[in-house]
Write a structure and sequence with these properties.
Order of helices and strands: EHEEHEHEEEEEEEEEEEEEEEEEEE
Shape: globular
Distance between the termini: 41 Å
CATH superfamily of the largest domain: Hexapeptide repeat proteins
InterPro entries: AcTrfase_PglD-like, Hexapep, Trans_hexapeptide_repeat, Trimer_LpxA-like_sf
Strand content: 25-35%
CATH topology of the largest domain: UDP N-Acetylglucosamine Acyltransferase, domain 1
Number of domains: 2
Pfam families: Hexapep
Protein name: Acetyltransferase
Organism: Tahibacter harae
Number of strands: 23
Largest sheet: 8 strands, mixed
Number of helices: 3
Family: Belongs to the transferase hexapeptide repeat family.
């Protein structure tokens, strides 16, 4: 598989490691003028850089793309996926070889399931979902488009995480809870009640906080 990344920071490094031996990374693109995270792969800046590269390459036929935008920027990740898809790139799921994914899990386009993560039976992942390093998604969880489950976070059974939500590192969401669209759950929080759309919660038990 020949692939490009949009995003030139830490998530790009993680994705390349997840694909080691299974894909050839051709180029990295970012909206900022960064140094490439890889000595052997060039970084191009912005839409102009992408267009230049496509002209030199002769188009996107047969190429794949992954969006290396993590954190609480799920809406940005989805928008960039749409833009790359419209240019003809395929948007594969990326599953680290040391992740566990049950055979009946339903996964949307562009999902990323990273090292030592577990996604258990009957879970559903939408488009552009990230299940980060060592995160655990238990049975019957439903994760909406662009949501990000941070490193070491735990979703107990039948949790619903709506589109664009972010679950911080090491957070725990108890069974049957709902995390609303674009909500943020702080690192290490223990969620015992539903979280409203665009809400921010932190602590044990998790309580509402205002955005900084």
């Amino acid at each position: 598989m020949k692939i490009v990344f949009w995003g030139g920071t830490g998530q790009a490094k993680v994705l390349r490691e997840a694909l080691a031996g299974r894909a050839e990374l051709l180029a990295v693109f970012d909206r900022r003028a960064l140094a490439s995270p890889f000595a052997d792969v060039p970084l191009y800046v912005g839409e102009a850089g992408l267009e230049q590269w496509l002209r030199e390459r002769g188009g996107s036929r047969g190429l794949h793309a992954a969006v290396a935008i993590g954190g609480a920027r799920g809406r940005d990740r989805l928008a960039r996926m749409d833009q790359l898809g419209a240019r003809g790139f395929a948007l594969p799921e990326i599953v680290h070889p040391r992740a566990f994914v049950a055979a009946d899990v339903r996964r949307g386009e562009g999902c990323q399931i990273l090292a030592l993560a577990a996604v258990c039976t009957c879970a559903v992942l939408g488009r552009g979902v990230i299940v980060n390093t060592r995160a655990s998604v238990d049975h019957d969880c439903v994760i909406g488009d662009g949501a990000h489950i941070g490193p070491g976070a735990v979703l107990a059974g039948e949790v619903q995480v709506e589109a664009g939500a972010f679950i911080g590192s090491g957070a725990v969401v108890l069974p049957g809870r709902r995390i609303g669209a674009d909500a943020v759950v702080g690192a290490g929080a223990v969620v015992t009640r539903d979280v409203a759309a665009a809400g921010v919660v932190a602590g044990n038990p998790a309580r509402p906080h205002s955005k900084a």
